[in-house]
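A quick aside before the break. I want you to see a complete sequence-to-structure record at least once, exactly as it would be stored in a machine-readable document. Don't worry about memorizing anything.
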Amino acid sequence: MRVDPAPLRVIAPNLKRRLSGVTSTVIRLVPLQARTIAIAATGPVLPATVPQIPLHSLLTMSRRGPGGGPRVWHARRNIEMIAGLALTHLLRKDLRLVFTSASQRQHSGLTRWLIARMDAVVATSGLTAGYLHVPSVTIHHGIDTDSFAPSPDRAALRHDLHLPDGLLVGCFGRIRPSKGTDIFVGAMLDVLPHHPSVTAIVMGRAVGRDQAFLADLRRKVAAAGLDNRLLFLDEVPADATAPWYAALDLYVAPQRHEGFGLTPLEAASCGVPSIATRTGAFAEIVDDGVTGTLIATQDQAALTRALQAILADPDRLHRWQTASRARALTQFSITTEAEALVALYRRLLGGD
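That is the input. The structure line, written in tokens, reads:
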């Protein structure tokens, strides 16, 4: 929904067209934060449900916020930090610059330079904070447990989504080597012949050179004669992913590298346990042996063993499903994340 820029105290840019974890975060948080502070997102592609202003209004909005005070600019990417600095130093907008870091690796020189010029820095986990060279506050990502919830009629949901019956194992998100999509496909090619009731789903988008990566995966699946049981589905909009999680029995996060990693949390909130690698915040999200299994990165054999074990034990899978939803409800509420960020904004705005 379009809003008037004049009364805004906080702007959350999303300067990327393609779906990503950052985009999902903005889409979920901004409507919730708008209940307690005047905030809007801005970017080239945002769902109508998100309070937003057009990008061009950044050029024409008043230099100062309502009452003559500053506004907060909350960046989550390098390009958004650069845009905030440009608005501040070239257009003389009175902004307090915030950056959220989810990365768990050493930043480039450019990123460190940009971060050093922020007024506040948020880390999404304790591990992330350890890679920062400036003071930060740790605020974990949360999940909208009302939107991401188990389906009351999963059979009907699968019918509506044109998905098969039986056990569904999913792997969602960008299709590229860093996400480990090939590891998931390789493990499922080993597992599926031994579990005739199981269907695997890869849902996401490959762009640029990753299109050849996806084409190679498709060829391997077809060569194994399993293209009717390992499905490649197109990416869906960020605000339409919840039903796809709710249709699953098990989720796999096979990433080689990850910053935070929302997908196991989205799955858990829908009552779907995960097998996840030890990267990003997965070890904080998945309670090993209770809501899923953690495995080493780049270990297809370990993923195959984990899949074989849980698919052969439906009682344990059911316990994991129940525990996953309970853990999401008690420890990963998006309300807690939203409240912590709004408190940070208010401090930067002078406590108003």
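Two observations worth writing down. The first helix runs from residue 21 to 33. The chain is about 40% helix and 15% strand. We'll return to this after the break.
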